[in-house]
Amino acid sequence: MKNILVPVGSSKNAKSHLQYAIDFAKAFGAKVYVVQIYNVYTKAGTMIKIDHILERESQNFLDEHVASIDKKGVEVITRVFKGKLIDTIEFACKSLGVDLIVLEPRTNSIKEEVYLGNTSGKIIKQTQIPALIVPENYEYKPIVKILMAVKSVLFKKENALKPLTDIKDQYKSILNLLLVETPKYKEGDLDISEDLSKLITNTTKSKSQTTFQGVLEHYQNHNPDLLCVVRRKRGFFVKLWEDNTILKRDFHSTSIPVLVLSGLKK
To answer: What's the rounded mean pLDDT across residues 173-190?
Structure first.
Protein backbone atom coordinates (compact mmCIF):
# COMPACT_ATOMS: atom_id res chain seq x y z
CA MET A 1 0.00 0.00 0.00
CA LYS A 2 1.77 3.10 -1.27
CA ASN A 3 -0.75 5.92 -1.69
CA ILE A 4 -3.67 6.81 0.60
CA LEU A 5 -6.26 9.48 -0.18
CA VAL A 6 -8.06 11.45 2.54
CA PRO A 7 -10.97 13.68 1.40
CA VAL A 8 -11.43 16.59 3.80
CA GLY A 9 -14.79 18.11 4.67
CA SER A 10 -15.90 20.53 7.36
CA SER A 11 -16.57 18.11 10.19
CA LYS A 12 -15.39 18.70 13.76
CA ASN A 13 -13.68 15.30 13.52
CA ALA A 14 -11.44 16.30 10.60
CA LYS A 15 -8.21 16.62 12.62
CA SER A 16 -8.49 13.34 14.50
CA HIS A 17 -9.48 11.62 11.25
CA LEU A 18 -6.43 12.89 9.40
CA GLN A 19 -4.24 11.94 12.36
CA TYR A 20 -5.57 8.38 12.14
CA ALA A 21 -4.87 8.28 8.40
CA ILE A 22 -1.29 9.48 8.96
CA ASP A 23 -0.69 6.95 11.74
CA PHE A 24 -2.13 4.22 9.52
CA ALA A 25 0.01 5.31 6.56
CA LYS A 26 3.16 5.35 8.71
CA ALA A 27 2.74 1.62 9.38
CA PHE A 28 2.88 0.98 5.63
CA GLY A 29 5.41 3.64 4.65
CA ALA A 30 2.71 5.17 2.44
CA LYS A 31 2.13 8.72 1.19
CA VAL A 32 -1.03 10.56 2.21
CA TYR A 33 -2.86 12.78 -0.27
CA VAL A 34 -5.18 15.21 1.51
CA VAL A 35 -7.73 16.52 -0.97
CA GLN A 36 -10.64 18.92 -1.07
CA ILE A 37 -13.13 19.12 -3.94
CA TYR A 38 -15.13 22.20 -4.78
CA ASN A 39 -17.73 22.94 -7.40
CA VAL A 40 -19.47 26.13 -8.54
CA TYR A 41 -23.12 26.21 -9.55
CA THR A 42 -24.06 29.54 -11.14
CA LYS A 43 -26.56 31.00 -13.55
CA ALA A 44 -24.97 32.21 -16.75
CA GLY A 45 -23.91 35.84 -16.58
CA THR A 46 -24.85 36.36 -12.92
CA MET A 47 -21.56 35.84 -11.12
CA ILE A 48 -17.98 36.94 -11.58
CA LYS A 49 -15.40 34.25 -12.09
CA ILE A 50 -14.48 32.98 -8.62
CA ASP A 51 -12.80 29.67 -9.37
CA HIS A 52 -9.36 31.02 -8.49
CA ILE A 53 -10.71 32.42 -5.21
CA LEU A 54 -12.27 29.11 -4.16
CA GLU A 55 -9.18 27.20 -5.20
CA ARG A 56 -6.93 29.51 -3.18
CA GLU A 57 -9.18 29.34 -0.12
CA SER A 58 -9.37 25.54 -0.33
CA GLN A 59 -5.60 25.26 -0.67
CA ASN A 60 -5.03 27.57 2.31
CA PHE A 61 -7.51 25.56 4.35
CA LEU A 62 -5.75 22.28 3.52
CA ASP A 63 -2.30 23.69 4.26
CA GLU A 64 -3.44 24.98 7.67
CA HIS A 65 -5.24 21.70 8.36
CA VAL A 66 -2.14 19.62 7.63
CA ALA A 67 0.10 21.99 9.59
CA SER A 68 -2.00 21.31 12.72
CA ILE A 69 -1.31 17.55 12.56
CA ASP A 70 1.68 15.51 13.75
CA LYS A 71 2.89 14.09 10.43
CA LYS A 72 5.31 11.64 12.13
CA GLY A 73 7.64 11.62 9.15
CA VAL A 74 4.89 10.66 6.69
CA GLU A 75 4.89 12.46 3.34
CA VAL A 76 1.62 14.42 3.23
CA ILE A 77 0.62 16.15 -0.01
CA THR A 78 -2.34 18.50 -0.42
CA ARG A 79 -4.40 18.76 -3.60
CA VAL A 80 -7.44 20.84 -4.58
CA PHE A 81 -9.77 19.66 -7.35
CA LYS A 82 -12.77 21.23 -9.02
CA GLY A 83 -15.65 19.12 -10.26
CA LYS A 84 -18.46 16.79 -9.34
CA LEU A 85 -17.68 14.64 -6.31
CA ILE A 86 -17.68 11.10 -7.74
CA ASP A 87 -16.09 11.87 -11.10
CA THR A 88 -13.42 13.99 -9.43
CA ILE A 89 -12.65 11.44 -6.70
CA GLU A 90 -12.23 8.74 -9.34
CA PHE A 91 -10.00 11.01 -11.43
CA ALA A 92 -7.88 11.92 -8.40
CA CYS A 93 -7.45 8.29 -7.36
CA LYS A 94 -6.46 7.24 -10.86
CA SER A 95 -4.04 10.10 -11.45
CA LEU A 96 -2.40 9.76 -8.01
CA GLY A 97 -2.25 5.95 -8.03
CA VAL A 98 -4.36 5.68 -4.88
CA ASP A 99 -4.60 2.26 -3.20
CA LEU A 100 -7.11 3.19 -0.48
CA ILE A 101 -9.44 6.03 0.53
CA VAL A 102 -9.68 6.72 4.26
CA LEU A 103 -13.13 8.16 4.93
CA GLU A 104 -14.94 9.84 7.75
CA PRO A 105 -18.45 8.43 8.16
CA ARG A 106 -19.83 11.97 8.25
CA THR A 107 -17.92 14.77 6.57
CA ASN A 108 -20.35 17.47 7.69
CA SER A 109 -22.07 18.25 10.96
CA ILE A 110 -25.31 16.35 10.55
CA LYS A 111 -27.69 14.44 12.76
CA GLU A 112 -26.19 12.20 15.43
CA GLU A 113 -28.23 9.19 14.34
CA VAL A 114 -26.50 9.11 10.94
CA TYR A 115 -23.63 6.63 10.37
CA LEU A 116 -22.72 7.38 6.75
CA GLY A 117 -23.45 10.90 5.59
CA ASN A 118 -24.33 11.89 2.05
CA THR A 119 -20.75 12.54 0.88
CA SER A 120 -19.18 9.40 2.36
CA GLY A 121 -22.20 7.37 1.31
CA LYS A 122 -21.82 8.47 -2.30
CA ILE A 123 -18.13 7.54 -2.35
CA ILE A 124 -18.81 4.10 -0.84
CA LYS A 125 -21.78 3.30 -3.05
CA GLN A 126 -20.96 4.98 -6.34
CA THR A 127 -17.25 4.23 -6.79
CA GLN A 128 -15.21 1.04 -6.98
CA ILE A 129 -12.27 2.35 -4.95
CA PRO A 130 -11.29 0.38 -1.82
CA ALA A 131 -12.21 2.41 1.25
CA LEU A 132 -11.57 2.38 4.98
CA ILE A 133 -14.36 4.00 7.02
CA VAL A 134 -12.93 5.17 10.35
CA PRO A 135 -15.29 5.99 13.26
CA GLU A 136 -15.37 9.49 14.65
CA ASN A 137 -12.54 10.27 17.12
CA TYR A 138 -11.16 6.74 16.69
CA GLU A 139 -7.54 6.46 17.82
CA TYR A 140 -5.10 4.42 15.79
CA LYS A 141 -4.12 0.98 17.03
CA PRO A 142 -2.72 -2.13 15.33
CA ILE A 143 -5.33 -4.36 13.70
CA VAL A 144 -5.07 -7.71 15.50
CA LYS A 145 -8.35 -9.37 14.49
CA ILE A 146 -10.29 -8.97 11.24
CA LEU A 147 -13.80 -10.25 10.53
CA MET A 148 -14.53 -10.60 6.82
CA ALA A 149 -18.23 -11.13 6.07
CA VAL A 150 -19.37 -12.18 2.58
CA LYS A 151 -22.27 -13.93 0.85
CA SER A 152 -20.03 -14.84 -2.08
CA VAL A 153 -16.28 -15.32 -2.33
CA LEU A 154 -16.35 -14.93 -6.10
CA PHE A 155 -14.36 -11.78 -6.89
CA LYS A 156 -14.66 -10.46 -10.43
CA LYS A 157 -12.18 -7.63 -10.01
CA GLU A 158 -8.48 -8.39 -10.27
CA ASN A 159 -6.54 -7.72 -7.04
CA ALA A 160 -9.80 -7.18 -5.11
CA LEU A 161 -8.19 -8.74 -2.03
CA LYS A 162 -5.01 -6.64 -2.12
CA PRO A 163 -5.99 -4.03 0.53
CA LEU A 164 -7.02 -6.85 2.88
CA THR A 165 -3.83 -8.79 2.15
CA ASP A 166 -1.69 -5.71 2.77
CA ILE A 167 -3.37 -5.04 6.13
CA LYS A 168 -3.17 -8.66 7.27
CA ASP A 169 0.49 -8.93 6.27
CA GLN A 170 1.45 -5.64 7.91
CA TYR A 171 -0.15 -6.39 11.27
CA LYS A 172 0.12 -10.20 11.15
CA SER A 173 -3.63 -10.15 11.80
CA ILE A 174 -5.97 -13.03 12.50
CA LEU A 175 -8.55 -13.17 9.69
CA ASN A 176 -11.87 -14.81 10.53
CA LEU A 177 -14.14 -15.42 7.55
CA LEU A 178 -17.92 -15.37 7.95
CA LEU A 179 -19.65 -17.06 5.01
CA VAL A 180 -23.30 -16.06 4.90
CA GLU A 181 -25.62 -18.26 2.85
CA THR A 182 -28.54 -16.07 1.82
CA PRO A 183 -31.77 -17.06 0.03
CA LYS A 184 -30.14 -15.89 -3.22
CA TYR A 185 -27.26 -18.34 -2.78
CA LYS A 186 -25.86 -19.77 -6.00
CA GLU A 187 -23.69 -22.86 -6.30
CA GLY A 188 -20.06 -21.88 -5.99
CA ASP A 189 -20.70 -18.67 -4.04
CA LEU A 190 -19.01 -20.05 -0.95
CA ASP A 191 -16.19 -21.97 -2.64
CA ILE A 192 -13.08 -20.38 -1.19
CA SER A 193 -10.30 -19.63 -3.67
CA GLU A 194 -6.69 -20.57 -3.05
CA ASP A 195 -5.72 -16.89 -2.72
CA LEU A 196 -8.32 -16.26 -0.03
CA SER A 197 -7.70 -19.59 1.71
CA LYS A 198 -4.08 -18.57 2.36
CA LEU A 199 -5.28 -15.54 4.33
CA ILE A 200 -7.92 -17.19 6.53
CA THR A 201 -7.37 -18.23 10.13
CA ASN A 202 -10.88 -19.53 10.88
CA THR A 203 -14.12 -19.90 8.92
CA THR A 204 -17.70 -19.68 10.21
CA LYS A 205 -20.78 -20.47 8.13
CA SER A 206 -24.15 -18.89 8.71
CA LYS A 207 -27.60 -18.81 7.11
CA SER A 208 -29.23 -15.38 7.12
CA GLN A 209 -31.46 -13.23 4.94
CA THR A 210 -28.57 -10.85 4.23
CA THR A 211 -24.84 -10.51 4.92
CA PHE A 212 -25.77 -7.57 7.11
CA GLN A 213 -27.92 -9.78 9.37
CA GLY A 214 -25.20 -12.42 9.48
CA VAL A 215 -22.75 -9.85 10.81
CA LEU A 216 -25.20 -8.69 13.48
CA GLU A 217 -25.62 -12.30 14.64
CA HIS A 218 -21.90 -13.17 14.81
CA TYR A 219 -20.16 -9.85 15.41
CA GLN A 220 -19.85 -10.09 19.19
CA ASN A 221 -18.47 -13.63 19.06
CA HIS A 222 -15.51 -12.45 16.98
CA ASN A 223 -14.93 -9.03 18.61
CA PRO A 224 -12.83 -7.76 15.66
CA ASP A 225 -10.62 -4.68 15.34
CA LEU A 226 -11.68 -4.36 11.69
CA LEU A 227 -14.78 -5.43 9.78
CA CYS A 228 -14.20 -6.23 6.09
CA VAL A 229 -17.10 -6.31 3.62
CA VAL A 230 -17.37 -6.38 -0.16
CA ARG A 231 -18.96 -3.72 -2.32
CA ARG A 232 -21.42 -5.29 -4.75
CA LYS A 233 -24.43 -3.99 -6.68
CA ARG A 234 -26.77 -5.42 -4.08
CA GLY A 235 -24.29 -6.06 -1.32
CA PHE A 236 -23.65 -5.33 2.34
CA PHE A 237 -25.28 -1.91 2.34
CA VAL A 238 -28.37 -3.22 0.55
CA LYS A 239 -30.73 -1.91 3.23
CA LEU A 240 -30.34 1.63 1.97
CA TRP A 241 -28.59 1.13 -1.34
CA GLU A 242 -30.73 3.74 -3.13
CA ASP A 243 -30.07 6.29 -0.39
CA ASN A 244 -26.55 7.59 0.22
CA THR A 245 -27.27 8.20 3.91
CA ILE A 246 -27.09 5.23 6.29
CA LEU A 247 -28.47 5.47 9.82
CA LYS A 248 -26.68 4.11 12.87
CA ARG A 249 -29.72 2.05 13.80
CA ASP A 250 -29.33 0.24 10.47
CA PHE A 251 -25.61 -0.36 10.87
CA HIS A 252 -24.45 -1.34 14.33
CA SER A 253 -20.69 -1.47 13.78
CA THR A 254 -19.94 2.17 14.43
CA SER A 255 -17.12 1.55 16.92
CA ILE A 256 -14.43 0.02 14.66
CA PRO A 257 -13.08 0.73 11.15
CA VAL A 258 -14.80 -0.93 8.20
CA LEU A 259 -12.79 -1.94 5.13
CA VAL A 260 -14.89 -1.95 1.96
CA LEU A 261 -13.41 -4.00 -0.89
CA SER A 262 -14.43 -3.88 -4.53
CA GLY A 263 -15.80 -7.14 -5.87
CA LEU A 264 -16.96 -5.81 -9.23
CA LYS A 265 -15.30 -5.34 -12.56
CA LYS A 266 -14.34 -1.81 -13.51
So the answer is: 89
What domains can be seen in the chain, in order of their start residue? 3-133 (3.40.50.620), 145-246+258-262 (3.40.50.620)
Tens of pLDDT along 133-164? 998 889 999 999 999 988 888 777 778 899 99
Q: pLDDT confidence of 49, banded at 50, 70, 90?
A: low
* pLDDT tens, residue by residue, 64-89: 999 999 999 999 999 999 888 889 99
What is the per-residue pLDDT for 119?
Answer: 72
Q: d(Cα 110, Cα 184) in Å, to the nearest integer?
A: 35
